[in-house]
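Protein modeling request. Please complete all fields; requests missing the sequence field cannot be processed.
Requester role: graduate student
Desired output: 3D structure, token encoding
Chains: 1
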Amino acid sequence: MAEGAETTAQLLREIGCQVVEIVPTSGFPVVFGEWQAGQPYTLVIYAEYDVMPADEPAWKVKPFEAALVDEPGLGRVLMGRGARNQKGPLVSILNAVEALVALDGKPPVNLMFVFEGEEELGSRHLPEFVEKYADRLKRADAMLAPHTHMNRQGEGLLWAGSKGIIVMELEASGQKWGRGPVGADAHSCYKAFVDSPAWRLVQALATLVSPDGNRVLVDGFYDAVLAPSAQDDALLAAFQDRFNPDFLDMGITRHIEDVHGLELMRRFFYSPTLNINGLSGGYAGPGIKTLLPAAATAKLDLRYVPNQEASDLIAKLRGHLDRHGFPDVELRVLGQSDWSATPLTSPVVSAAMSAYRRMGREPQVWPRNPGSIPFWIFNRAPLNLPFASAGLGHAVRSHAPNEFIVVDGNAQVFGLAQFETSLAAILYEFAAASAHA
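Delivered output (437 residues):
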């Protein structure tokens, strides 16, 4: 990680940044750079230099030795861990700035680069950096997160927000319950007269949602949800015929209640969710091992939306378990990232839309990324920066084997040069949009 931070800092020096600093935190450092161009407007560029592990056996190349590979229909692609998430976009924005400097002597806006090393760990210590550098960052007018937002059909997406997320564990144990095995698993024959913490966890989980698992039954869970406005619905309706959620999660053939079109999009962008990521307890290996587990655990994620608040939702979950007779079931919060939102009239959103159209692509403006990204750290006080995540490049398989970014492209999908051109266009358009705001 130290070498990665230094390599990232060197890239900033090479494009002409007058200030380059590796900023320590309680975790991995943040790499900060400034390109002061004497322009009236300033943009923060956010990206991450950390990546997910690459221990999957299905890699066709050595994941940390980027390789050019021919991908049918797309020509050459650059394959390796981080090609999409997010080293490819990070280097692409630097290439774009380097080209602008070579062309005009300076970029069209002042730039601050914030490249963190803990995004895949939940950006745990990024607030430390923001607090320390707040006076500098407050000089900025907006933030841009460059990314490969072109799908396989050649359509360009951009995000102006993100859902929040709470990651937690629920655990039922004999020790906390005062019933069942305590401290160690027991032989399953004792189930004849010994309670099961595993069944207790299952029944606690079942109280949280409707029988189909699709509606949260916690009192007040949906009270603060900000419903889509008429303007929001009009935005979604503009591209509902082109919206294709199948490219997000391949292999999904049915949707809840078979929803489609505008209703599917409302749920995707505006609905909170409660999901089980995994269940563990006792023995789940091959063959037979008959046990009565002393404890069982469920890992959950709760994605929430404006105007819900994490502390309120956690309190409501805890209160629900208590009221339903499960005060012994532990609720442990493992991580949390808040929601963020930017008005679609903001100059940075308008700039991205204009850049897409300038390159012949009508944008699909997503009111928020239905996943969770730490944009809230910049979008909330003390910075309150509007932001957009945008870029007309194509890359796939984040967090999976054989991750790649397209180099050549085809008639629909842009290659690397066009991706970098789109990022340069956003910088020009932001300068223009800010001047007319």
